[in-house]
């Protein structure tokens, strides 16, 4: 049974890159360019880990993460905050994310982030 990763980002290049890297590493990937109806999107897939971009149309990453973290059935799923902002760590903290990954990231960082959170 493959571990599942859900990536929220409105940048298709980032989504394609992450999908290639993580599928190569043996994960199942779902992507979305919007965090609308975040609870429905995540409930339908039940990933093992979520990557959340800061800048998303309509509902931003902070609000979407907070919504997930206040949901009894979804709050256990690790959320990795994903941003090119230089204050990504404080954004992640504000959102209640489990960790963060600054963009641009390198492939090894992405893979390590996933395996650290999925296999612990």
Would you give an account of this structure?
- This protein is an alpha/beta fold.
- It is 42% helix and 20% strand.
- It is built from 5 helices and 5 strands, in the order βαβαβαβαβα.
- The protein has helices spanning 12-24, 38-45, 61-69, 88-95, 107-118; strands at residues 4-8, 28-32, 49-53, 79-83, 99-102.
- Strands 2-1-3-4-5 form a 5-stranded parallel sheet, with helices on both faces.
- Helix 3 runs parallel beside helix 4 (88-95).
- The two termini are 17 Å apart.
- The mean pLDDT is 96.
Task: Report a brief summary of the structure.
This protein has 120 residues and is an alpha/beta fold. The protein has helices spanning 12-24, 38-45, 61-69, 88-95, 107-118; strands at 4-8, 28-32, 49-53, 79-83, 99-102. The chain has five helices and five strands; from the N terminus they run βαβαβαβαβα.
Number of helices: 5
Helix content: 40-55%
The residue-averaged pLDDT reads 96
The topology string of helices and strands comes to EHEHEHEHEH
CATH topology: Rossmann fold
Which secondary-structure class do the elements indicate?
Answer: alpha/beta
CATH class: Alpha Beta
Broad shape: globular
Number of strand segments: 5
How would you characterize the largest beta sheet? 5 strands, parallel
Domain module count: 1
CATH superfamily: Response regulator
